[in-house]
Design brief:
With 283 residues, the protein is an alpha+beta fold. It has two domains: 3-35; 49-280, no CATH class. The chain has eight helices and 13 strands.
Amino acid sequence: MNSRIVAVFNQFRFLIVGIVVVVIVFIFIVTRGGGNNPKSSSGSTSGSTKAPASLVNEIATIPSSVFDSIGTGTATGKPIAISAPALTQNNKPEVFYEGAEFCPFCATERWAMAASLMRFGTFTNLGETHSSTTDVYPNTQTLSFYGSTYTSQYITFVPLEIYTNIPDSADGYYTALQAPTAAESSLVSKYDATPYLPSADAGSIPFIDFGGAYLIAGATYSPTVLQGLSHTQIASDMHSPTSAVAKGADGAANTMTAAICKLTDNQPATVCDATIQQIELSL
């Protein structure tokens, strides 16, 4: 083989190697999402879509006067005080949530959670979805925290949606979505259980930990008030203090706000007002 042919062969070989390297890097980025996608346990697709900006804005602009007029409303539960190590992230109290998109009680509680959290910060990429169509309170219209980002100068928010609302033909349950870390699994195993919760509530989702100081397991107001309503109807009703939705969702949001205000030393003062501080006394 003469030198000219060898040179051409070597150039071709290096070109092939370069193409292979580029393909490998591309596959790595796609499958790993560049390190920016929410952690997924199985690569499952969420059953949610991005919530319209108008819907998010509707929840974010519920007037303080509405919250104050409702108080705890018809909320049947509230955060339970516990004695545990402080849960923090980035030197701020952490609110940790574990739920699932199929879960009707998570569907119920997310409206209250979003309303409360938006009093302290903002969401981007908040999702909208619905609960299972075959479970109790079927097809409850709701939000999803999967893929969302929350920004606040007062607290951090760490959400996990561990299952979608998409049935899994392989096991008859729902497809897995986000996997907890070892520390998150340990947290849930320890505190979503007795003696921190009543035995009837142990193991429930949604599970919410407010900075290691308060817990919620299950829905804290009745899912019935949301039945048959669309996303926009629910968000709109949350502005009306006489509606069953506002009495339930806004009332539950106020109890969550009181728990968060306890963590932030009642900051900001515009949120942690006299009504909220009164609720704090009952926690």
